[in-house]
């Protein structure tokens, strides 16, 4: 206490030593346990805006034809456009609008999962907000992280946005049907992706025309077989 | 701009830990490889503390540089980016520092 005016001048240090993302990570682990208890495979699908996330989801859902069941959490700043597109495939979908937020976090996905209520032995595809920076830092409780790049974006994306690629369990190179029309070096893209994330699998495909989609579906079935109880 | 939500969670954490004290300083470690920009964090801070017991507090940030150790050859080296490659050619690298993102302490009145 200050003797002159009575104000409290003295301060003391309180040691916190706490990770800033501890709360998000705790909730993400809660989501992970909840999904595991239901044998649900959850993928966090991330890319820049316009790389083809929603188109890939539509093709994936239609190709698998309900075996296993897929449900979707859509993340966008605004609108229900993507949820409406996904709904035409016949699958259950929850739209999360983040407003000013540039990424999904574990709390949003927690609420989304409860609303979605996915059945046992199924797949939940979480389409993150289109952004190659911010979503990389936030664990949602997913089983795997899938990063999509399209050939119209440039082959240098892995080294320009390393935080995104360093967390990728799978990289999908989309829109390869446009390769004859753009200057995109696939070998350089693959080698740059592996500089950031050694040994990462890169699957070239076109969600629009279907090239290479079978390899992606095989990857998905393989991961699903490890999580979901019945043979897929 | 994930820094805004990150700083909102910093304020939430501090308010939970010291709800009744006036906070005059927040000390953080934000490593150079953390993916969080110190300039953006400083820019957000005044906005997220407004109307809380952290209003008017200073923000003291240390930024540990990236350091790594190669599991193949055992050497330690600086890491300026997320390309985990040792000069011996191995990518089997352990990050020792630079990814910190934490609140170390606060000063309270």
Automatic annotation (TrEMBL), chain A:
Q: Which residues form the CobW/HypB/UreG nucleotide-binding domain?
A: 44-203
Pfam families named in the record: cobW
CDD domains attached to this UniProt entry: HypB
Q: Does the keyword Plastid apply?
A: no
Single GO MF annotation: nickel cation binding
One biological process GO term for this chain?
A: protein maturation
Q: Does the keyword Metal-binding apply?
A: yes
**Record keywords, A-Z:** GTP-binding, Hydrolase, Metal-binding, Nickel, Nucleotide-binding, Zinc
Q: This protein's superkingdom?
A: Bacteria
Which family is it part of?
A: Belongs to the SIMIBI class G3E GTPase family. HypB/HupM subfamily.
**Protein name as catalogued:** Hydrogenase nickel incorporation protein HypB
Q: Which organism is it from?
A: Lentzea tibetensis
Automatic annotation (TrEMBL), chain B:
Which residues bind Zn(2+) per the record?
A: 70, 73, 86, 88
GO biological process, alphabetically ordered: protein maturation
Superkingdom is: Bacteria
Annotated GO MF terms: nickel cation binding; zinc ion binding
Q: Which UniProt keywords apply?
A: Metal-binding, Nickel, Zinc
Gene3D superfamilies (UniProt xref): 3.30.2320.80
> Binding residues for Ni(2+), per the UniProt record?
2
One Pfam family matching this protein: HypA
Zinc found in the keyword field:
yes
UniProt keyword annotation of Metal-binding present: yes
Q: Which InterPro entries match?
A: Hydgase_Ni_incorp_HypA/HybF_CS (IPR020538), HypA/HybF (IPR000688)
Q: Which family does it belong to?
A: Belongs to the HypA/HybF family.
Q: What does this protein do?
A: Involved in the maturation of [NiFe] hydrogenases. Required for nickel insertion into the metal center of the hydrogenase.
| Alphabetized HAMAP family for the sequence | HypA_HybF (MF_00213)
Name of the protein: Hydrogenase maturation factor HypA
Organism of derivation: Lentzea tibetensis
